[in-house]
Amino acid sequence: MILYLHGFRSAPASHKASRLRQHMQERGLASLFWCEQLPVSALESISIIEAQIARCDTPPTLVGSSLGGYYATWLAEKHDLKAVLVNPSVLSYVSLEPYLGEQTNMYNGESFVLTPAHLDEFRAIETARITRPQRYWLMVETGDEILDYRRAVEKYAGARQTVLEGGDHSFTRWDDYLDDILDFAQVRP
For residues 76 and 61, what is the distance between their CA atoms, to the nearest angstrom? Predict the structure, then answer.
């Protein structure tokens, strides 16, 4: 089972979530994909994801993009799960501070307000360091205009790392890695 965790201001309709969903459907694996709209609250998001983890028959693999990677790291550590981290946020309470105030979801157009209390929730789930690097696969592009990829490379030292020159925060070569993600997650028909 793969649980896809989208990023800040993103949604299940994002390119990465949609392409992974489609890729799995084409291989008869639709029932092994989960992605839901996550709220701005980290604690509410974690609660939703943990409820889904509890419903899984076998340990799922987390695939987290940006803020979703931040969540995936905390959950992988807590529940001993594998995680694919795509241009992940390393210190969300710092990187999201400039976004305090009203925001709009890029995919569904819904408005929401990011507050200092939300930043405190991100701070509360910070994973200072990972304990088992082998459970992680870090995927970053050096052209990420939102987050400094070097922070992720440093934080996930010892983990499998795919560091690609160029690109951007969307991870432009996503489609090239879909089969590899399924292999990492050991998801098969």
Answer: 9
How many angstroms separate the CA atoms of 147 and 152, rounded? 9
Half-sphere exposure of 66 (CA within 13 A, CB side): 19
- Per residue in 17-50, pLDDT (tens digit) is 999 999 999 999 999 999 999 999 999 999 999 9
Label residue 158 by pLDDT band (50, 70, 90).
very high
Q: How far apart are CA 188 and CA 24, in angstroms?
A: 9
Of the candidate CATH numbers 3.90.1150.10, 3.40.50.1820, 3.40.50.720, 3.40.50.170, the domain formed by 2-185 belongs to 3.40.50.1820
pLDDT digits (tens, 9 = 90+) for 87-100: 999 988 989 999 99
The two tokens of residue 27 are 């291989």
- How far apart CA 141 and CA 31 sit, in angstroms, is 30
Q: Where are the domains of the chain?
A: 2-185
Count Cα atoms within 13 angstroms, Cβ side, for 8.
Answer: 27
Question: How much is the pLDDT for 188?
Answer: 83
Task: Please state, in angstroms and rounded to a whole number, the distance separating the CA atoms of residues 48 and 24.
Answer: 22
